[in-house]
Specification:
The complex is a heterodimer of chains A (803) and B (93). Chain A has 803 residues and is mainly alpha-helical. Chain A is built from 35 helices and two strands. In chain A, strands 1-2 form a two-stranded antiparallel sheet. Chain B has one domain. The termini of chain B are far apart. Classes of the chains: A mainly alpha (803), B mainly alpha (93). Chain B: Keywords: Antiport, Cell membrane, Ion transport, Membrane, Transmembrane, Transmembrane helix, Transport.
Chain lengths: 803, 93
């Protein structure tokens, strides 16, 4: 199975070659032709898996990455992964084919484009075939990064950069949440493998981290799949080149969250929280997306909101399908299994029609230079093929026969009708809302699909509004959307081929505990006159009426206050977060050293005194102390007087003299405590320091030389007394807590060990000579530093003089 | 015993002298008074170190006595020069 591995990493490998191809061959051949080989070969390779996977086989291959930490890159192919893999490589091939004609060979930096695109493709393939949670997360973030790069492809535009930043912020935020959820899962089940997690389901479900892990993972899924309220990045991501929008923001990346939810359904499904969040958020997103899509006049944001709405539909179907886990295998479980099946089916359908619709928008943009429906109209006769494709895609999105959207929408209606009758998780009371919301949202969907198709292609043709001569797109550009449009129709007529070979194994992967007979999963276009069909008829009727009357209500709908949009909240939130953190930082980072010292000292006192009190560490023990002689006391008094003089001195000379007196007194103390070497050194150092102070004193700037007392501040007094008290208490307590004998006896042998009668010197140069060496280097550095400072200053002084 | 008592009394007297000098350091109306007092502190410290060495029967502190003598001279000179000229080390001109 190492070939599987090779194929997942093929896009990355090829991305390394792309710049060379671009540099040496771009003049002759569009770089995209070379890149096209990659998804095509992956697609063909993955197609060979279908028979085996359809018969229930799975494949895996493990590559040890960091074996000591248990981190491997496990590739695992089952039905769900294969469905996504086929979508990624298939739509990827079509998108690259389309981009060859869309992206100019002359004007665009094609190597960047294809490197990012290949990077994304590889990341997405790695994502769907990963069984290891951390590898999954790695690929997940790689899709975020490559999407960021692709959105900001035209980086000289401000809107591109803003859209890219917004999508990065939101998806990475969710990604981090997901990582936290994954880590909780790993802690619960003590395994990194998704399959083993599913096997250890009961351990996880009883664990206290079950709900937090679920919420964190759902955060990741919802941000990636642009669910409410994280959907705002998707419309802004429309600044990307259209092939990118078509590939990432309709067919693949936004489905990564769907994939995650589907993958995690066996673990989390069956719990009421999961059901309510997934299906509730899904259905809100469905309504929100379809309502907001109505208000758009630009085609790409319209499609973006429609993508959001369709993703909400799939998400809510997955939530409803998770009820099957609750019921288990059996009559009522099977009903909800069909919901999951519908989710997978609509996922496939959406990729086909939405991909083609984006490509259509790209063609319109490319040929007319406009994307705003207020300028477009009457293109039906000018661009008949494009119109046909748009009609197929639009009607499929609206859920009309004979297109695949009809089938999945019928199944969706069936699922929401079933869930309102489920009678668990408090569905009795508000379960009836599900079909109503779904139905209303479908009406809006129908209306915006009509707006999309009819406002662009119907009506009158206004060549004066378009700044170029409009004609049908080149055939190369039309191939990819034509293939997708063909799929849309084919799936309607032969849904069971797709169902049997691709969707059924995927369903087994999502709900491994269910045993479903193929009869239940038969998709049929006609199953008698029932509620679903009536609902669809109602959608067409009401939607048609609404479309007719759109002149009455659409302008009002478009005047929706900007202050209430999610975008506004996001931007305001970002701005106020910046403002708030700036003001916070400015408040405490005052630039005044006094304040910083205050923080340091207060923290010091709080930490040390606090922990002393907390651990009952304050205990004084004077039993071992020596007697205090009268001249000791006298010296201490002298020192206190000198120290106070330093503080209260009226001018600096007094302070310097008092400091010198203090230093001399300290050396006297060294004498009393029998430390002749210390006393010597202290004496010299004190004298030198005093002389240095005098030197500095002279060089103080004129303004500050006004002689004044140190100004009095209460906070300073309190803090300084607190610090002194802390150190005193700490020292006295430490003195009473001697736990071990000192090791002085070893050094007393200095004559025998080192041939030295002076212990202090023996310690300095023999026993602990290393410290001395470093202190010598400290002195050297200080000396050099002073020299350099003086030299630099005098040089600069000369330059000033020269000026 | 009497010897020790004598020595301690001598030390105490010296400490008292240092305190008296410090009074001058703190109070001293002019800087010259203070410097003088500091010099005197140094000499008193020399004396007390000498008495202390006798008291301890050691000659480990004799170096210190010499050093303080030198340093207190240098310090006083530096102060004096500073007070007179405003600089300690003059530049060659």
């Amino acid at each position: 199975m190492i070939t599987l591995y090779l194929f997942i990493f093929l896009p990355f490998i090829f991305a390394c070659i792309v710049p060379l191809l671009y540099k040496y061959l771009n003049r002759q051949v569009h770089t995209g032709w070379f890149v096209l080989v990659v998804p095509l070969s992956i697609l063909i390779y993955l197609l060979t898996f279908i028979p085996a996977v359809a018969s229930g086989e799975t494949f895996e291959y493990t590559f040890s990455w960091i074996p000591s930490l248990g981190i491997h890159i496990t590739s695992y192919v089952d039905g769900l992964g294969l469905l996504f893999g086929l979508l990624i490589s298939g739509v990827g091939a079509l998108v690259i084919l389309y981009s060859i004609f869309y992206m100019s060979k002359v004007r665009e930096a094609l190597h960047n484009f294809y490197i990012y695109l290949l990077m994304f493709m590889g990341a997405m393939l790695g994502l769907v075939f990963s069984d290891h949670l951390l590898a999954f997360y790695g690929f997940w973030e790689l899709t975020s990064v490559s999407s960021f790069l692709l959105i900001s492809y035209w980086y000289e535009r401000k809107s591109s950069r803003q859209g890219a930043m917004k999508s990065m912020l939101i998806t990475v935020f969710g990604g981090f949440g997901m990582l936290a959820g994954f880590i909780m899962l790993i802690m619960m089940a003590d395994t990194y493998s998704i399959r083993e997690l599913i096997a250890n389901m009961d351990v996880i479900q009883g664990h206290s981290l079950f709900i937090p892990a679920m919420l964190c993972i759902l955060l990741g899924a919802f941000t990636k799949s642009a669910q409410f309220p994280f959907s705002i990045w998707l419309p802004d991501a429309m600044e990307a080149p259209t092939p990118v929008s078509s590939y990432l923001h309709s067919a693949t990346m936004v489905k990564a969250g769907i994939y995650l939810v589907a993958r995690m359904t066996p673990i989390f499904g069956g719990s009421p929280v999961w059901f309510w969040i997934v299906s509730g958020v899904g259905i809100i997103t469905l309504l929100y997306g379809s309502l907001t899509a109505l208000r758009q006049t630009d085609l790409k944001p319209l499609l973006a909101y429609s993508t959001i709405s369709q993703l909400g539909l799939i998400m809510s179907l997955l939530g409803i399908g998770s009820l099957a886990v609750y019921f288990g295998p059996g009559e009522s479980g099977t009903v909800f299994t069909v919901a999951t099946f519908a989710a997978l089916f609509h996922l496939f359908n959406h990729s086909t029609f939405k991909g083609s619709l984006f490509m259509v928008v790209g063609i319109i943009d490319h040929e007319t230079g406009r994307r705003d429906i207020r300028y477009l109209g009457g293109l039906m006769h000018v661009m008949p093929i494009t119109f046909t494709i748009a009609l197929v895609g639009g009607l499929s999105m609206a859920g009309l026969p004979p297109f695949n959207g009809f089938l999945s929408k019928e199944m969706f209606f069936a699922a929401v009708l079933d869930v309102s009758k489920a009678g668990i998780f408090g569905l009795n009371s508000i379960g009836a809302l599900f079909p109503v919301i779904a139905w209303v949202a479908s009406i809006f969907t129908f209306v915006y699909c009509m707006i999309f198709v009819l406002k662009t292609f119907g009506g009158k043709y206004h060549p004066e509004r378009l700044n170029r001569k409009v004609h049908e797109a080149p055939i190369g550009m039309l191939i990819a959307p034509m293939v997708l449009g063909l799929l849309v129709v084919l799936v309607f007529f032969f849904p069971n081929v797709l169902g049997k070979y691709i969707l059924a194994p995927a369903l087994t992967a999502v709900l491994p505990m269910m045993t479903v007979s193929s009869y239940d999963l038969k998709i049929s276009a006609w199953h008698g006159i029932n509620y679903e069909l009536l609902m669809t008829l109602g959608v067409i009727l009401l939607g048609g009426l609404l479309y007719m009357a759109k002149k009455r209500w659409l302008p009002t709908a478009r005047k929706f206050p900007q202050g209430w949009t999610l975008n506004h909240f996001f931007n305001e939130g970002l701005l106020s977060a910046e403002r708030w953190s700036a003001s916070l930082t400015n408040r405490y980072m005052t630039g005044s050293l006094r304040h910083y010292l205050l923080y340091i000292f207060v923290f010091f006192v709080l930490l040390l005194l606090g922990s002393l009190l907390w651990f009952h560490g304050i205990r004084f023990d004077f039993s071992d102390n020596a007697m205090i002689n009268i001249f000791d006391a006298g010296l201490v008094i002298c020192m206190v007087i000198s120290a106070l003089t330093v503080l209260l001195a009226a001018n600096r000379i007094v302070a310097i003299v008092a400091l010198g007196a203090l230093g001399y007194m300290v050396s006297m103390f060294f004498v009393i405590f029998r430390a002749p070497d210390l006393a010597l050194t202290q004496m010299v150092v004190e004298t030198v320091t005093t002389v240095l102070f005098l030197l500095c004193f002279y060089h103080l700037p004129k303004l500050k030389r006004t002689i004044e007392r140190i100004s009095f501040k209460w906070t300073n007094l309190v803090v300084s007394i607190a610090v002194g008290l802390t150190v005193t208490v700490l020292g006295l307590s430490a003195n009473g807590h001697k736990l071990f004998e000192p090791i002085t006896s070893f050094f007393e042998n200095s004559y025998k060990l080192a041939g030295a009668k002076n212990i202090v010197n023996a310690i300095l140069v023999d026993f602990r000579g290393f410290d001395t060496m470093l202190e010598i280097s400290v002195l050297t550095i200080a000396g050099l530093g002073v020299y350099v400072l003086i030299r630099q200053r005098s040089k600069r002084g000369k330059e000033h003089e020269a000026e | 015993m009497i010897f020790d008592t004598l020595m301690i009394i001598a030390l105490c007297l010296l400490v008292l002298a240092i305190m008296a000098n410090l009074y001058r350091v703190v109070k001293g109306p002019s800087s010259a008074d203070r410097v003088q007092a500091l010099d005197s502190v140094g000499i008193n410290i020399i004396a007390s170190i000498a008495v202390f060495s006798v008291f301890l029967h050691t000659h480990a502190f004799f170096d210190l006595i010499l050093l303080i003598g030198i340093l207190s001279f240098i310090g006083t000179t530096a102060f004096a020069k500073f007070l007179e000229r405003g600089v300690v080390i003059e530049r060659k001109r």
